[in-house]
Amino acid sequence: DAILLTGYRPRFDWGAFLAAWQIGCPLLFRAETTDHAERRGPLKRWARDIALRRFYRCFSRLLYIGKRSREHYVRLGAREDQLVFSPYCVDPSIFQIEESDRERHRASTRQALNLTDQQIVLLFSGKLVSRKGPDLLLEAVKELGPTLREQVAVIFLGEGCLREPLQDIAGLSPAVTVRFAGFQNQHSLSRFYHAADMLVMPSRASETWGLVVNEALHHGLPCVVSSAVGSAPDLVQEGITGATFESGSSRDLVRAILRTMDLLRLPELRSRCQEHVQSYALDVAARGIARAYWEALGFSVGDGVVC
Q1: Cis ω on the peptide bond leading into residue 174 (within 30° of 0)?
Q2: Angle CA(269)–CA(271)–CA(274) in degrees, nearest 5?
Q3: Distance, CA of 290 to CA of 283 (rounded, Å)
Q4: pLDDT, tens digit, for every residue of 65-120?
Q5: What are the E-state strand segments in the chain?
Q6: Chain centre distance of CA 78
Q7: How many CB atoms lie within 10 A of CB 299?
């Protein structure tokens, strides 16, 4: 009845697109669409805009995953009746996110990592590569005052070519307490989120969304993210769920970390984070896809269709 595409680069997607076009089947599109993730030259940007304008006109509905995704579609001429919200999300059922889970995991995980209850733990989750900015996080921690710096520890969750350089940077004066937990599958992540006090995502570029922000918020963890992170306008509310800083600026990252440290004193912080991410949950995304499907077939919610 309808075909949902989730991209336009793989050959498979183009085959599906052409097949749907040939038989007149309604097309729906839901993908990582944004203008901020990659820097392009004027000519390449102009050519891309022309191609995407024509491409998007072929779709009955365009499902935007967040605010920057919607802005992208609108800039390229999408009609209001084409747009349906279907947010980027994670399935929280694979995690352990209850208060009892936090109480069970927090102390034991810190003990296993040789961290104390009093330390302020910053969590980095992702590939240890330059565009993700793990070195920027260490640089920012080094810029903290000596007393506060001694209270801070950084957990690096993930692997990558920067692991050894990061170990070297952390050991240079002023030294930073770091722990490398390596790659972990999704079922093992909850204990690290509960052991941490905040997630820091200091990406320099090419971060269309950043699903680890969703994961952290489901665990009640505030987030510090760079302006290059696609989910920043959606998930990170200043003074409520964390803070945003200017991409590439260690000094601005320091200020964002300090602002988020102030939030840690709020007893309602965890519930705030979990409540906010519910607007970007799996059921909301599913209802968006269902709505787009029925509308593409000529129905509306008022026609007895339940999305």
Answers
A1: yes
A2: 110
A3: 10
A4: 999 999 999 999 999 999 999 999 999 999 999 999 999 999 999 999 999 999 99
A5: 3-5, 27-30, 61-64, 83-85, 120-125, 152-157, 177-182, 198-201, 223-226, 242-245
A6: 25
A7: 14
